[in-house]
Design goal:
heterodimer; A: alpha/beta; 2-enoyl-CoA Hydratase, Chain A, domain 1; 7-stranded mixed β-sheet; about 45% helix; about 15% strand; globular; B: alpha/beta; 6-stranded mixed β-sheet; 3-stranded mixed β-sheet
């Protein structure tokens, strides 16, 4: 297990692709597609969404018992991004997948407890989007983060609103239009993650933050988070829906089709971010 | 005065890259009638009918020690009708820059003040030399920077925008960077030009379609899309500025500001 807290109280396996564990007041959602760097394919997105919904039930049902949620990925990488391989030529399923991701991000944001992304290895494209939707994100210097979508002829529409809310519109514009990826320290300097610590300290840092959050008033934290979500437009369902449509439209276009076909032929394993051109 | 001699805006097209260079260094590229006209023509070129002919990247830079020091105040003092006209043209110009299909990079050395700062803020990505300065020191001439507030709000966030638009502060490049107005500060002009050229080259290599869609989506997400259509936020903001320009207070403040400056020179 990646998370250091021992699993005593509850262990629920949602599916093979993602699991929800609750231990010592901290819920952990673990992406379990490590062999593909936790790239988000249809099944993984569905499994993630079910874990988020189950976590919401736990948090709301036992207010004050679950105090924080950690989002993590098994293996070497947090999440290498969207895996469009299976749906590249199927516009309908592609649209479903992007809508699924967009609404999962919204559900993650709505959770009434503070959320922490534990980012090791890589958080690329949609994977970086997951980290940015969390209230906190902690990474290490060797990790690679960023949004190389435009490098691949893809529009990062689904993740854009969340990045704007996190780092502001001006810096988000520069990051999304320039594409590419960055190391953990630069990601911390540019506000993409909240902290960058040595890789060996990652688990301890996440546990310490979760521990500190558990000392705050549960009701106060939930109200504060809801207030912040309202203030920064996080609950805007229309923009989340429009984003998925736009992203699907651009991916269905000839440019993206050509570059993604090339990419997957080159790298049959992993997500589109497997080989982002800088 | 100078229109016949040499162009005040120089355009260079190289493949997908269009470079627009303000070229009136003697007057610190102050925005006057000729410069406005030539910039407006440059934007026509940047947004042709056939989208396939459009540049996908634009670098907006300037010759001389300053990027753009704001309006040509001498002309405004001589002709009282000019100031409101300039405000209107600036509003339209900045809205058009934001709505361009190309990614626009501002390359800023020296002063980018008032109208010059507004031009920079309407660009997508801002690179600056360490000597660059930003701000809206227009209250001392009785003018409101309202015309640029919609874009400023979207770029810098509510707190910083309020500070910048109300304080008249002139921010050094590093401080502008920490407030989110500037993305990257370089030690000197040489480093600035090198970094902007490298960024422009890397952007030109990307899919124009994805860049265009991403920019348009960002405009929608951060609310600056509305500035693309005239008669919307920018027009209301410009009107607010114009109303202030037309007051007797603004006239007398501008006149006395100009007299003091001439006395110093």
């Amino acid at each position: 297990m990646i998370h250091p807290l021992c699993c005593t109280t509850l262990d629920r396996t949602m599916t093979e692709r993602a699991s929800l564990t609750i231990a010592d007041g901290c819920a952990t959602i673990l992406l379990r597609r490590g062999e593909s760097r936790n790239a988000l394919d249809c099944d993984t997105i569905v499994a993630l969404r079910r874990c988020i919904d189950a976590a919401a039930v736990e948090c709301n049902g036992k207010r004050g018992v679950v105090r924080s949620l950690v989002l993590a990925g098994e293996g070497k990488s947090f999440c290498a991004g969207m895996d469009l391989k299976g749906v590249l030529h199927d516009a309908v399923r592609m649209g479903d997948m992007l809508r699924g991701l967009s609404s999962a991000l919204l559900a993650l944001r709505r959770l009434p407890v503070p959320t922490i992304a534990r980012v090791q290895g890589a958080a690329i494209g949609g994977g970086c989007g997951l980290a940015v939707v969390c209230d906190f994100a902690i990474t290490h210097p060797e990790a690679k983060l960023g949004y190389p979508e435009v490098d691949l002829g893809v529009c990062p529409a689904v993740v854009a609103p969340w990045l704007v809310r996190r780092i502001g519109a001006g810096p988000a514009r520069a990051m999304l239009l320039a594409g590419g990826t960055m190391g953990g320290e630069e990601a911390a300097a540019r506000g993409l993650v909240t902290r960058c610590v040595p890789a060996a300290d990652l688990d301890a840092e996440v546990a310490a933050l979760a521990g500190r959050l558990a000392t705050g008033g549960a009701e106060a934290l939930a109200c504060t988070k809801r207030m912040l979500n309202e203030l920064d437009g996080s609950l805007d369902e229309k923009i989340a829906a429009d984003a998925a449509e736009l992203s699907a439209r651009v991916i269905a276009g000839p440019e993206a089709q050509a570059s993604l076909t090339r990419l997957y032929a080159l790298k049959p394993q992993g997500g589109p971010a497997a080989n982002p051109a800088r | 005065m100078t229109t016949d001699e040499q162009p005040q805006v120089i355009l260079q097209r190289s493949g997908r890259l269009l470079t627009i260079t303000l070229n009136d260094p003697r007057r610190r590229n102050a925005l006057g009638t000729a410069l406005f006209e030539q910039l407006e023509r440059a934007l026509d070129e940047a947004n042709p009918r056939d989208i396939d002919d459009a540049p996908s990247v634009i670098v907006l830079g300037a010759n001389g020690s300053a990027f753009c020091a704001g309006f040509d105040l001498e002309a405004c003092v001589q002709d009282a009708t000019l100031l409101p006209l300039f405000v209107e043209r600036l509003g339209r110009l900045t809205a058009r820059i934001r709505a361009l299909p190309a990614v626009v990079i501002a390359q800023v050395q020296g002063a980018a003040l008032a109208g010059g700062c507004a031009l920079v803020m309407s660009c997508d990505i801002v690179h600056a030399a360490a000597d660059a300065t930003f701000g809206y020191p227009v209250h001392r001439i009785g003018v409101s920077p309202a015309v640029n507030v919609p874009v400023l709000l979207a770029t810098a966030g509510l707190g910083a925008a309020r500070r910048i638009a109300l304080s008249s502060e002139i921010l050094p490049a590093r401080q502008a960077e920490s407030l989110g107005l500037v993305q990257c500060v370089h030690a000197n002009e040489g480093a600035l030009h090198g970094a902007v050229a490298a960024l422009a080259e890397s952007l030109c290599a990307k899919s124009p379609h994805a860049l265009r869609a991403t920019k348009a989506w960002l405009n929608q997400v951060d609310g600056t899309e509305a500035t693309g259509s005239l008669g919307s936020a920018v027009d209301r903001a410009a009107q607010a500025t114009i109303d202030v320009c037309r007051t007797a207070e603004a006239r007398s403040m501008l006149d006395s500001f100009w007299q003091q400056r001439r006395a110093r020179m």
